[in-house]
Amino acid sequence: MKIFEAFRPRLIGLAGVALVVAGCGGSANDDLPLISATISVKNIAMGGECETIPVRMVPKALDEKANKYANARQMVVEVPTEGPTDENGAPMCNGTAETLPMHTGTWEFSAPLRSDTGRCERNIQADGDRNIIFIDAVEGCEGAPAESEPAAEEMMSEGTEGEAAETP
Questions:
Q1: Which of 12, 113, 136, 138 has the fewest CB neighbours in a 10 Å radius?
Q2: Stretch 28-33: mean pLDDT, rounded?
């Protein structure tokens, strides 16, 4: 009996370590990727100063499976901006930051910009578009509408050519 009493603290310690090691085994979701989104902000400078923009992310409809280390709760990422730079006569502040690892699914992103609060919802997936771009005075988080620029340039070049052809 005295032999077991002398080893009791060690046996209890070893049993505790064995339970911890057994509990630390991997889960079925460990092989799923840890994904983050890239948040870019382009905001109008106020008084020649740029500031840090807090971008809030709220989960809306999350997938069932994700890496166990993925964040599934509301979070905020601070996006520090630099500048201002002169972009078409407007003083703009630009910044980019990465989110914490995110659970896959639909998230709402919002950022307080000078003109209004930018908002959008995005389905965050490992193989999907994870670039969130907020531009002051542009709705959503897709950035500047890419389709309208080439169309506008084509219309202007067609109109210019047409006018030149009609004028003798």
A1: 12
A2: 71
